[in-house]
Each structure stands twice: as structure tokens, then as C-alpha cells.
Write a structure and sequence with these properties.
It is a single chain. By secondary structure, the chain is an alpha/beta fold. It has one domain: Alpha-Beta Barrel (TIM Barrel). Helices cover 33% and strands 21% of the residues. Strands 9, 10, 11, 15 and 16 form a 5-stranded parallel β-sheet that branches. A 3-stranded parallel β-sheet has the order 8-14-12. α2 packs parallel to α8, α5 runs parallel beside α6 and α7 crosses α8. The relative contact order is 0.20.
Length: 262
């Protein structure tokens, strides 16, 4: 396997009302072991009403390997995504809300979820949502070896194809952890890596604070091109989702599929 990556890629990041254009020049490689394995942990600084501050070098690396964290076109569009490590009883309600509001979403699932939640996965597929790869065992892709990363992605993709007839095209690295090598592997296996431009601490099922809390945690940070990460295990998110969608639409936002990115 030899992939030639000798192009300088520019990524436009909307930061504080101006555009900065970082560049990243990937090295040519004949083996994944030649690539950088320094772990990156995706993080950002949220800003009310506009796009977040991100690490420009990480964003440029992500872009260089067919990855995204937001839509930089300037369009008033939102991308709704959910991480599904396990089922906590709220996904059916989330799907109901999406159906009523005619909103597409992406669900990033693990191996156990794909195997056990047949009815929910079929609903996701049949109702036009994207089913994305979150690795079989929710591994840290930044610190895992080449063979492990490839196996985790390929086994889940094969399982999804076999059980549901769905080809996975997007991957979300668990915990937002990645390195150049994991991005290259994902890209070469046909995946687009999807991170996010908005998230909040919603995954702790023992620290739920009600629908109003979720609503107030999300709406101030909506911005053009946002990729929104929510966890479907959150009762707060399930209860607040309808109001969040209605507010966003009232403000002129359109919800789009990840297929519109790139």
C-alpha cells in the first residue's frame, strides 16, 4: 500500500469574526508505522453564537485526512449526531422526535450496540439516518496499534453490512482521540472522520439535570455549520430534543445529513 499525500491543504476556521488558514502537509508513506503517533485529544472552547476556538494544527491534520468537525461553507446548517455506546432506553424517543420534525441524524455505534439493538438499528436505517462506526469496543484509536485499529473498524463495518445491509462511511474516534496514523488508516479504509464543533457534559447518567438544563446548554452555542455531538444515553437530551430542534428551525437553521459535508 502506498498513498501519495504531497498536497498542502488549507482549512478555513471561522474564529472571532475572521478567517485563519492553517496548513498541513502530510508526508508520503509506504507504511503506517512511518506516521506520527502522538495522541491528540479533540477539544474546543465554546463561544456563544459563533463557531468555537479549536487547535488549528489538529483541525488542519483532520482535514488533510478527509475529516470534519464543522461545515465551513458559512451556510445556516446544523448536523445532528449521537454517540451510542450502549442503550439506556431513550433512543426510541429520540428517533420519534427526529421523525416528527423530519430531521436527519447520524448515530455512531459500537459492536455490542449493533448486535443487541436490532430494532433501533433498523429504525435508524429505515428512517434515513446514518449509522456510523464508533469501533467495536470503543477503543482509544490514538494509542492503539495499526492492526487493532484496522480490526476494530473492519469488524464493525462488516457486521453492519452483514446484519443490516448498510455500508459504514463515517467514523467517530471514541473520546475524540486520534493521531495521524489512525486518521490515515481510517481514510484509507474509506472512512471520513467526524468530530464535532459543539458538545457538553451529557454522558453521565447519574448527573442529569433536566430538559431545561440540556436546552440551555445547547441553544446558546448553535452556530453556522455546527456538528452537534449529543449522547443518546442522556434523559435530558431526549426530553429537550424537540424544543432544541424547533428553536433552531425558528432561528433559520436547516438540519442536514453528514452526506452534505465535503
Amino acid at each position: 500500500m502506498k498513498a501519495k499525500l504531497s498536497v498542502i491543504l488549507a482549512l478555513c476556521l471561522f474564529l472571532g469574526g475572521c478567517y485563519s488558514v492553517p496548513t498541513y502537509d502530510p508526508a508520503e508513506y509506504t507504511s503506517y508505522e512511518e506516521l506520527d503517533t502522538v495522541p491528540k485529544n479533540w477539544g474546543l472552547v465554546k463561544k456563544k453564537g459563533t463557531s468555537p476556538e479549536v487547535d488549528a494544527s489538529q483541525a488542519a491534520m483532520l482535514c488533510a485526512y478527509d475529516g470534519y468537525y464543522m461545515d465551513t461553507s458559512g451556510k445556516k446548517v446544523l448536523y445532528l449526531t449521537f454517540d451510542e455506546g450502549y442503550e439506556n432506553g431513550y433512543t426510541a424517543k429520540i428517533l420519534d422526535v427526529l421523525a416528527v420534525n423530519k430531521v436527519p441524524a447520524a448515530f455512531f455505534v459500537t459492536g455490542p450496540y449493533l448486535e443487541k439493538q436490532t430494532e433501533l438499528i433498523c429504525r435508524m436505517r429505515d428512517e434515513g439516518h446514518i449509522i456510523g462506526n464508533h469501533t467495536v469496543n470503543h477503543i482509544n484509536m490514538a494509542v492503539s496499534g495499526t492492526d487493532t485499529v484496522k480490526t476494530e473498524l473492519s469488524e464493525l463495518g462488516d457486521m453492519c453490512e452483514e446484519l443490516y445491509g448498510v455500508t459504514m462511511e463515517y467514523v467517530r474516534p471514541p473520546e475524540g482521540a486520534f493521531c495521524e496514523r489512525s486518521l490515515a488508516i481510517s481514510r484509507d479504509m474509506g472512512y471520513k472522520t467526524v468530530l464535532w464543533s459543539f458538545a457538553y457534559r451529557d454522558w453521565d447518567i447519574n448527573a442529569q439535570q433536566g430538559a431545561q438544563y440540556a436546552y440551555q446548554s445547547v441553544i446558546p452555542y448553535l452556530h453556522d455549520g455546527a456538528v452537534i455531538l449529543l449522547h443518546a444515553v442522556s434523559s435530558d437530551n431526549a426530553e429537550a430534543l424537540d424544543d432544541i430542534i424547533k428553536y433552531a428551525k425558528k432561528e433559520g437553521y436547516r438540519f442536514a445529513s453528514l452526506n452534505e459535508l465535503g
